[in-house]
Amino acid sequence: MSEPTVGSRPTLEAVAARAGVSRATASRVVNGGTGVRAPLVDKVRQAVDELGYVPNHAARTLVTRHNGAVGVVIAEPEFRIFSDPFFERQVRGISRELIAYDSQLVLLWVEGPGDHDRIARYLGGGHVDGALAFSLHNDDELPALIGHAKIPAVFGGRPPAGRGLNIPYVDCDNRGGAREAVRHLVSLGRENIALIAGPRDQTSALDRIDGYHDVLVDADPALLCQGDFTAQSGARAMAELLDRRPDLDGVFASNDLMASGALRTLRERGLRVPDDVALVGFDDVGSVAETSEPPLTTVRQDIEGMGRLMVRLLMRLLNDSGGDAPASVITPTTLVRRASA
């Protein structure tokens, strides 16, 4: 069989001819199959390199039963995903780790309840090998839909109670990090410490509320105000807190974006940070914490590293489908001290 002419795309038949093996043997080697003797594998690989052959994805899928793609589902609308640097960093960690496994990222997000059926059909349609899902809410249908799709999955963040379906997750020590933030404010001599909490339908926000109350057991309810993890909500919550308790002298905001909004309100009210009010955030997103004025003291979680861990757990599930699910992972947090507290 003749080899392809210059400018044509090399064929699998050409690889087999160059290596001196059957087409079936060449197919098993280039598509990741097993059962081929090492000397023949070397010959096929050499032929692939010499001819510049690129394996056919459909054929590879038939042999390996893998698509080489992972669905990343973020349970937030598009404007949140592309305005919150937390999501950018987590997706970056996921993407970088998937590259190491020669797999592609397929990004899916939830604009509204109607998107759940679309996502379920896609995940269950054989398009991806597994799913990573994060920013889950208490009333999310996603855990059940992922379970019904019967594909390996890992959650980012602890799922709501009773909704995990024995699916492993990766999260940080939200409660411990919040405790450390509030203890730091107490160590500075602050006596009236407010909390700008995240939405109560997410476990990360609830854990940070619990961490605050672990330190300030008898905190005045007027010192707690809820936001939604956006800078705008942090600004609104800070204004409300100052109206209720103008004597407050410390604030723990449950993420850096809300802390940046709070900082803007404090400045508008003529209050100095940290002289009048000390402020601590959560996440340590550099584009927010380091560029704030003053730079933000915050609780660091390894956002990108958590994305990488999610991929590693998923790959363990894919490569050991008959084994037990890997254990969930809780990563540590650390307090990063800057000028705001």
Q: Could you describe the 3D structure shown?
A:
It is a single chain. This protein has 341 residues and is an alpha/beta fold. It has 14 helices and twelve strands. The chain has a six-stranded parallel β-sheet, with helices on both faces. Helix 2 crosses helix 3 (38-51) and helix 11 (231-244) packs across helix 12 (256-268). The longest helix is centred in the last third of the chain and has 17 residues, at 303-319.
CA-atom Rg in angstroms:
25 Å
Distance between the termini: 75 Å
What order do the strands of the largest sheet run in, or round the barrel if closed?
Answer: 2-1-3-4-5-11
User: Which whole number gives the mean pLDDT?
Assistant: 88
Q: Tally of extended strands?
A: 12
| Most strands sheet | 6 strands, parallel
Structural class: alpha/beta
Defining traits:
16% strand, disordered N terminus, alpha/beta, 341 residues, 6-stranded mixed sheet, single chain
Brief description of this entry?
By secondary structure, this protein is of the alpha/beta class. The protein is built from 14 helices and twelve strands.
Please give the structural blueprint.
Blueprint lengths: L11 H8 L3 H8 L7 H14 L5 H8 L4 E6 L3 H4 L3 H16 L3 E6 L5 H10 L5 E5 L7 H8 L3 E4 L12 E4 L1 H14 L5 E5 L5 H13 L8 E3 L4 H14 L5 E4 L2 H13 L9 E6 L2 H4 L7 E4 L2 H17 L9 E3 L2 E3 L5
Parallel strand pairs: 1-2, 1-3, 3-4, 4-5, 5-11, 6-7, 6-8, 8-9, 9-10
Antiparallel strand pairs: 10-12
